[in-house]
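Practice problem: predict the structure.
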Amino acid sequence: MKKYLPEGCIINSPENKRLISTASGLHEAMTGGKILEARAVMCDNQHNIIVDLPCMKGIIPKIEGAIGIENGKTRDIALISKVNKPVCFKVISINTDNNGNETAILSRRAVQEECRKNYIEKLSSGDIIPAKVTHIEQFGCFVDIGCGIPSLIPIDAISVSRISHPSDRFTVGQDIRVIIKDVDSDRVWLSHKELLGTWEENASLFKAGETVSGIVRSVEDYGIFIELMPNLAGLAEIGREACVGQHTSVYIKAIIPEKMKIKLIIVDVFSAQYKPLPVKYFIEDDHISSWHYPPSNSDKVIETYF
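Answer:
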């Protein structure tokens, strides 16, 4: 199932480069039903995708551009947005015109249908799979879960620490991991926060008396919530002006597991344009059945069952 990766994962592989470089390589891929990748260089006025092949012109006809284009379930923007990006495809024919010029007719839809049948539909709740961030909206993060098949991580499923926008956590093109919540014939539901560790796992990275970096996530009447990790925040007393999104240095006054609290003192607060840090995953397995966030000695209940 590893061959059904997000688009762009095989474009620079030696095997892919070999097959797309010559007419004989494309014939070999067509006979063997192999999945290839190349860059989409344009989408013409009929919404056919023109693909950059070293040896001949490549065309993905509109109807072959994606699952759902034929019946209107997928909008044409799904094709337009692929320009200047890697696309996956199978070679379905190689045509020769009267002048001897060859054109490869390609199908991205065929790859997606195979991916859905042999991979997506066999996934179960709790399975952990690779994904690639494709675009970000206020309400969530769209990801490619295999061969250009899209799915959404809702903003409240990205992390325990609340964020104002998914771009606080992700960047377009980023490779991440996601958890399958449910799969049906048309949609795949995803989550992400469970991979970022429990309260105890995150808190174990810090000690009282340390001064560490953080990000202001919420300013309330009773204090300022500072994110130390995507799944861990502490509370600082109101003592100076702070705005959501600003960076801080904070002194850790106390860590109280039974109350699931970290008491902080703000040393400094400032604005900066730092990129999101690489995601730290606490789960390396490819499946989980349940996730319990609070420490064992806490009365709070925050959990997910898959």
